[in-house]
Design a protein that fits this description.
- The protein is an all-alpha fold.
- The chain has one domain.
- The chain is built from 7 helices and no strands.
- The chain starts with 13 loop residues before the first helix and ends with a helix.
Length: 161
Amino acid sequence: MPPVKISVQALKHPVHLLALGFGTGLVPKLPGTAGTLVGVLLFIPLQHLPWPYYGAVTVLMFLAGIWLCGRTATYLGVHDHPGIVWDELVGYLITMMAAPQGWEWTLLGFSLFRMFDIRKPWPVRWVDKRVHGGFGIMADDALAAVYSLISLQLIAYLLKS
């Protein structure tokens, strides 16, 4: 069954505007990728913050996402509608925690996160299927982001050696 069509009217509500990634969740093809691009745009200014501040912003965005995504899912009547992309946005920020500076790393982090988010290795797929509500929407992407973060850090370490 195709996902519920989201009305542009939903973007008038601030909660839905955020959960739908400032409208990128309405992109007909690859809304998760479009939402992740918003994460890249947010990462660019945030990357210059000291690590503890970057981490605090990311945690706060994750916690806000539990509520935002849960409210929008209830509004849409669909557990994890593809248009809800706040989780991708935050997932990208988790991926990029303590990442090396440079556009190459920004692009590599983007690619790794999209790969793990789409492929959903264990336990990401398990969480995606069994954990519901706003926490479930956020948790599977956070786990995919942890895989991405570890991979990015491992690549950075190997390239330094």
